[in-house]
């Protein structure tokens, strides 16, 4: 039961390096489309040679690229024909993103231009980069661990500032450092365990059961803390699902239009106008939201409407929050009560709409500030409630804030702060497996299981933590991770 050594990691890296030939790759590093700047990136041993062949400086004194300095001039095709005025830069490895020689052409951002520059690089011997290949080379060349590599994609995909903060902390290596520290602590326990097993006749006990248990529990509690961070951070990284539900003509579509600030859903006085669901992306004061308007809840002989109602109930069951829209003049009925019973009152916010149509709405500034519903409609048991007028656009700010607070309270946290660390789905699955292995190990220690058998669980937990940072991650997992990246990153 030997501890993992640096030699194991070196062997792994040598194996991974053999999976690519170290040739020179090129790709467009900016989104295709019209823009001010488009960047073509080249990485590999021939990056400098290709840059010198394709670039003509506008300076008469230019002899060669000064590392990490932008040079102005003309980029040409493989036959020397001018393509565009550009800024070109050459960055020698290993102190680059990929750890290799890197060259970039910053040209005008038209798709035809950047495509022509890329074709010129390919014609001169570069290979078109695979998805995520630049970042994969950075990982393989030791420029970052796997958690940092994944954070690159998370940074690009972050929908709001909260997601950016979480990705940046991982990109800075904070998660990798924490995982490495926990794994090192387990490795120290493994070393002591080896001594205890190999030299049982020694008078000095090198690892008492209590010391063993304390170390295991420390790591296990740290893993649990990271897993809680995953649950809290999911809403900032992936967004939340908010579903508008309620009976026909309650004003769901009007409310959706009012929240979006534009007409998205058709609104009529005819019951059952919305038969399918409509989905839009928006922000609730910085919280990314998928807002879905669904078909009205009612009994119908129309097969299409029946299917719409079924989908509505399914979406409500999946939602992080259901905005249950009710006509304030009528109050909630049996359909609303059934929905609340099905999804749980803790995931429902009762929205009393059309408050402006009441005979005596008594809508003064104080009530609008705290958005109290008063005795207008009997509340559903356990449901928080707000009141709005979708037609007049009143009460919307209070509704957004109430929905945001409701979601964050359920998910156990507020907006991420600088330095907060949260694993992604892959990392959390490995953390959960490691935590379960340590939980079983704790029980085995208490049951007096021999040390040599306990070492198997300890080794498994260490391997799971190593998989997170990429030290023992199988090739198929690595390929899956980097294939999800965009081309050019």
From TrEMBL:
It comes from the Bacteria. (6S)-5-formyl-5,6,7,8-tetrahydrofolate binds at residues 41, 104, 143, 489. Its main location: cytoplasm. GO terms for cellular component: cytosol. The keyword Aminoacyl-tRNA synthetase does not apply. Mg(2+) binds at residues 253, 274. Its EC number is 3.6.-.-. Keywords: Cytoplasm, GTP-binding, Hydrolase, Magnesium, Metal-binding, Nucleotide-binding, Potassium, tRNA processing. Gene3D superfamilies: P-loop containing nucleotide triphosphate hydrolases, Probable tRNA modification gtpase trme, domain 1, tRNA modification GTPase MnmE domain 2. It is an enzyme of class 3 (hydrolase). GTP binds at residues 249-254, 268-274, 293-296, 389-391. Belongs to the TRAFAC class TrmE-Era-EngA-EngB-Septin-like GTPase superfamily. TrmE GTPase family. HAMAP family: GTPase_MnmE (MF_00379). Exhibits a very high intrinsic GTPase hydrolysis rate. Involved in the addition of a carboxymethylaminomethyl (cmnm) group at the wobble position (U34) of certain tRNAs, forming tRNA-cmnm(5)s(2)U34. This is tRNA modification GTPase MnmE. The gene is mnmE.
């Amino acid at each position: 039961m030997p501890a993992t050594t640096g030699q194991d990691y070196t062997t792994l890296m040598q194996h991974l390096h053999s999976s690519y030939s170290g040739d020179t790759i090129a790709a467009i590093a900016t989104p295709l489309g019209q823009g001010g700047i488009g960047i073509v990136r080249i990485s590999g041993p021939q990056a400098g040679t290709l840059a010198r062949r394709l670039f003509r400086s506008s300076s008469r004194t230019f002899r060669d690229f000064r590392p990490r300095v932008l040079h102005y001039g003309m980029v040409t095709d493989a036959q020397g024909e001018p393509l565009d005025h550009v800024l070109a830069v050459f960055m020698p490895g290993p102190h680059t993103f990929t750890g290799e020689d890197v060259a970039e052409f910053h040209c005008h951002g038209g798709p035809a231009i950047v495509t022509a520059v890329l074709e010129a690089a390919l014609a001169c011997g570069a290979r078109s980069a695979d998805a995520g290949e630049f970042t994969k080379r950075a990982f393989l060349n030791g420029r970052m661990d796997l958690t940092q590599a994944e954070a690159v994609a998370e940074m690009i995909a972050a929908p709001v500032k909260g997601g950016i903060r979480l990705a940046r902390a991982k990109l800075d290596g904070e998660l990798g450092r924490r995982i490495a520290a926990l794994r090192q602590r387990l490795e120290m326990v493994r070393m002591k365990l080896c001594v205890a097993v190999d030299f049982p006749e020694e008078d000095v006990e090198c690892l008492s059961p209590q010391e063993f248990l304390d170390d295991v529990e420390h790591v296990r509690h740290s893993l649990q803390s990271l897993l809680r961070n995953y649950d809290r951070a999911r809403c900032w990284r992936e967004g939340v699902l908010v579903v508008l539900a309620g009976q026909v003509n309650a004003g769901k579509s009007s409310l959706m239009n009012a929240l979006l600030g534009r007409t998205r859903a058709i609104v009529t006085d005819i019951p059952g106008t919305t038969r399918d669901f409509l989905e839009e992306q928006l922000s609730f004061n910085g919280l990314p939201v998928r807002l879905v308007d669904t078909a009205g809840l009612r009994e119908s002989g129309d097969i299409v409407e029946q299917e719409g109602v079924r989908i509505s109930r399914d979406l409500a069951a999946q939602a992080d929050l259901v905005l249950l829209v009710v006509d304030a003049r009528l109050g909630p009925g049996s359909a609303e009560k059934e929905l609340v019973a099905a999804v749980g009152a803790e995931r429902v916010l009762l929205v009393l709409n059309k408050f402006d149509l009441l005979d005596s709405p008594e809508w003064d500034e104080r009530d609008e500030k705290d958005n109290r519903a008063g005795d207008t409609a009997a509340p559903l048991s356990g449901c928080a409630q707000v009141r709005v007028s979708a037609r007049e656009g009143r009460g919307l700010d209070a509704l957004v804030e109430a929905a945001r607070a409701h979601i964050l309270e359920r998910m156990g946290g507020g907006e991420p702060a600088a330095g907060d660390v949260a694993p992604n789905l892959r990392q959390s699955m490995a953390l959960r497996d490691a935590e379960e292995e340590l939980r079983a190990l704790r029980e085995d220690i208490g049951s007096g299981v021999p040390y040599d058998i306990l070492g198997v669980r300890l080794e498994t937990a260490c391997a799971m933590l190593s998989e997170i940072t990429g030290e023992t991650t199988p090739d198929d997992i690595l390929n899956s991770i980097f294939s999800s990246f965009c081309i050019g990153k």
